[in-house]
Amino acid sequence: MSAAPAFVAVDWGTSAFRLWLMSADGAVIAERRSNEGLAAASAAGFASVLESHLAPLPGSDGLPVVICGMAGSRQGWIEAGYVEVPAELTSIASGGVRVPGTERNVTILPGMCVKSAREPDVMRGEETQLLGAMLESSGAERFCMPGTHSKWVQMRDGKVTGFQTYMTGELFSVICSASILKHSIPDGGSVDANEPEFLTGVRDGWLTPARFTHELFSIRAGQLLHDRLPTDNRARLSGLLVGVEFAGAGVGDDESVALVASGRMEQLYHAALVACGARVQTIDADTAVQRGLRQAWRILATETGGRLSA
User: Fold this and answer.
1) What is the DSSP string of 150-212?
2) CA atoms of 71 and 77, how far apart (whole Å)
3) Are 257 and 144 in contact (CB under 8 A)?
4) Strand 142-145, strand 111-114: pairing
5) Which tens digit of pLDDT belongs to each residue from 22-67?
6) What is the pTM of this model?
């Protein structure tokens, strides 16, 4: 007998929408994905987009929905605000905001923030992924969550004590498309985690981050003077950026890091961390966000005295 649907989990990002119909024990019964991120949903209507994905799913009628990500941003469906750190990670569930005027119970989870005047920081969506990762991290205290804006999170005893964001992925895109290096780097393509130029770039960026802007120009000079291949240049640029991120995050030799990532991003960061001497525990990013949304649903159900309802 298949598991009965209990709730709907949604990760609503800037450019993507992911929905899972889930059982009480966390089994994924059905899944929907689209490119209806923040901008598309704002134009079409968040409620309309959500219901269009739920309509084809048997058993979804009346089920509660728990959402993380950019749907809770200031430009989203309804602003869910931020939980200030240090804070218990489970507090994101208690801080969830109920969307008014919907036929079913729709709750959007808040993000987390560092309100330091000198180094303010925010995350939205990653905190829910982190909640799921915590459940299988064997007491890890350092989490790396790579992406367009990579997050490094410090935790202790279930509490987020701090985090930092690095614009690694976005800088890679900007440098490739809008700097002098666009003439030295091929359009498209991907970087292999085992490419020597990538791993050398990682260690150079990690060990000597103060030379970063010089190393960038050396990519251009190397092509002009030594005919270095565009694919090698791309790999080196990627490695340098990741290495500088590691330097900023204070990655140390023999440090234990929980890496929350999937696919190519997991391969690149795993290889890069190992190249810097770190001990890596990998946690699948998709599984982590599903588990985080389930944990939030369970907390919300407990706080409301039972199963959430419409």
Assistant:
1) EEEEEEETTEEEEEEEE-HHHHHHHHHHHSGGGGTS-SS----TT-HHHHHHHHHHHH-GGGH
2) 5
3) yes
4) unpaired
5) 999 999 999 999 999 999 999 999 999 999 999 999 999 999 999 9
6) 0.94
Q: Give average pLDDT by consecutive 10-residue segment, the chain, 310 residues.
A: 89 97 97 96 97 96 97 97 98 97 96 97 98 90 97 97 98 97 91 97 99 98 96 98 98 95 98 98 97 97 65
What confidence tens digit (pLDDT) does each residue in 279-288 have? 999 999 999 9
Q: Which helix (H) or strand (E) holds 282?
A: strand 279-284
Rounded to whole angstroms, the Cα distance separating 88 from 92 reads 8
Reading across the β-sheet that carries 106-108, which strands appear in turn?
28-34, 17-23, 5-12, 65-69, 106-108, 97-98
Q: Judge whether 4 and 21 are in contact, CB under 8 Å.
A: no
Residue type, 165: T
DSSP string over 100-157: TT-SS-EEE--EEEE--SSS-EEESSHHHHHHHHHTTSTT--EEEE-STTEEEEEEET
Give pLDDT tens digits for 206-223: 999 999 999 999 999 999
d(CA 259, CA 266): 7
